[in-house]
Amino acid sequence: MDIAGRFFRPPEGSYFLFGPRGTGKSTWLHQHYPEAIYIDLLHPETFRTYVAMPERLLAMVNANKQARNFIIDEIQKIPELLDAVHKLMEDNRQRNLQFILTGSSATKLKRAGVNLLGGRLPWKTMHPFMAAELGNLFNLPQSLQQGLLPLVLDAREPDKILNAYITVYLKEEVQTEGLVRNIGNFSRFLEIMSFSHGAIHSTAETSRECQAGRKAVAGYLHILEDLLLGFLVPVFTKRAKRKLVHHRKFYYMDTGVFRSLRPRGPLDIPEEIGGAALEGLVAQHLRGWISYRQDTHQLYYWRTKDGAEVDFVVYGDKEFTAIEVKSSRTVSSKDVRSLQSFIADYPQARACLVYAGPERLELNGITCLPCEEFLLKMRPDESLPG
User: Fold this and answer.
1) Residues 270-277: contacts with CB within 8 Å, 24+ apart?
2) At residue 280, what are phi and psi to the nearest 5 degrees?
């Protein structure tokens, strides 16, 4: 699948480019920097060469005098290369070298020297496809089942790729790097967290479900975030006029990944899983929209102690929007009550309800948009639809 139309815009200088496996980082880089010298640390021979002699990078770059762009893929495999990159940047300022350092996990870098370059190189992220990147190829029902990872959408048998996706992470990131002592417990944690997708996360409840200590579960959650597989959304508390909850909400980074991890049985309600999938699909789009804008916007949710809840609040210097997501095909006045409560507290904000129906509506002054329209119109260079 051609991904030249991605919304990601690179900096002019050197930078880190992170993103979960399968988001198309390598393909995009090959297309965007066709003349770059590419070092793939997933290649066994390349890995053996540089892990034995990280300083070899100095000799290689100095030998290629005409080259400007150097891409090191999966830099977290050999964090020691950061020392060589730093020296090359200092010693070759006149050459205006550009290093693009990619990774699918920040864990090892955080443990080994990333501060060396963290203040100089911006950290950028590539996300799963956004609907507007796909245009006419976007299929909402398919996206709710298989997600929007380029790796999956490109596959002849996407379900098999999804089922193997987490296994690859467990083997190549968690087990190989020794991130946890018991890989079985962590695998169980990933499954348990699928029940928290789109819900308020409680470490205590997850600990009981996993039959593991709270400290262990908190550590697992940090690993999950560092692996870029999941993210937490905090409560919007700015100038709060009501008592609010304080727990964060959890989402897997892609709806397809959530679906692959979520067990299904006689007691599971399909509508409940479908609702979580739709909310997660909106969440990952909002996250991508914020990331690609490269400005001050943040993603929150809002929930009062008495139960009024708004799924998402986007807040920044140019956008203040409250968004509620409903998986039903019809909506009524009661569905916009929480949005009305939010607007009553924050009259500066816009409000929008996104639902699974086909028509654009207005209820009690609240715009209601079909989900497909909302997602397709979401572009980082424009305001949120609504």
Assistant:
1) 271/327, 274/144, 274/327, 275/198, 275/327, 276/197, 276/198, 276/199, 277/144, 277/145
2) -65, -35
Exposed e or buried b per residue across 288-318, where buried means at least 16 C-beta atoms within 10 angstroms of its C-beta: bbbbbbeeebebbbbbbeeebbbbbbbbeee
Count other C-beta atoms under 10 Å from residue 270's C-beta.
Answer: 8
Question: Tens digit of pLDDT for each residue in 145-190?
Answer: 999 999 999 899 999 999 899 888 877 778 766 677 788 888 899 9
Helical packing angle, 81-91 and 56-63, nearest 10°: 40
Instruction: Domain ranges for the chain, please list them.
Output: 15-125, 135-376
Residues 6+ apart with CB under 8 A from 189: 206, 210, 212, 217, 220, 224
Quick one: angle between helices 203-210 and 183-194, nearest 10?
120
Class of CATH domain 15-125: alpha beta
Q: What is the pLDDT of residues 139-153, one digit of tens each?
A: 999 999 999 999 999
In the chain, the N- to C-terminal Cα span, in Å, equals 30
Token pair belonging to 111: 């443990």
Produce one character per residue of 62-99: b if its CB has 16 or more CB atoms within 10 Å, e if not.
eeeeeeebbbbbbbbbbbebbbbbbebbeeeeeeebbb
Q: Which of 278, 290, 256, 372 is nearest to 324 (CA)?
A: 278
pTM comes to 0.93
Residue the block writes with tokens 């692996």 = 227
Q: What are the tens digits of pLDDT across the range 49-99?
A: 999 999 999 999 999 989 999 999 999 888 889 889 988 988 887 788 999
Determine the Cα–Cα distance for residues 218 and 316; give it in Å rounded to an integer. 29
For residue 381, the tally of other CB atoms under 10 A from its CB is 9
User: Which structure tokens are listed for 377?
Assistant: 């119109």
Angle at 198 between CA 194 and CA 199, to 5 degrees: 90
Better-predicted residue by pLDDT, 111 or 221: 221
What distance in Å separates the CA atoms of residue 8 and residue 291, rounded to the nearest whole number?
A: 9
The sign one gets for the Cα dihedral 149, 155, 156, 161 is negative
CA quadruple 100, 105, 110, 111: dihedral positive or negative? negative
The 3-state DSSP class for residue 356 equals coil
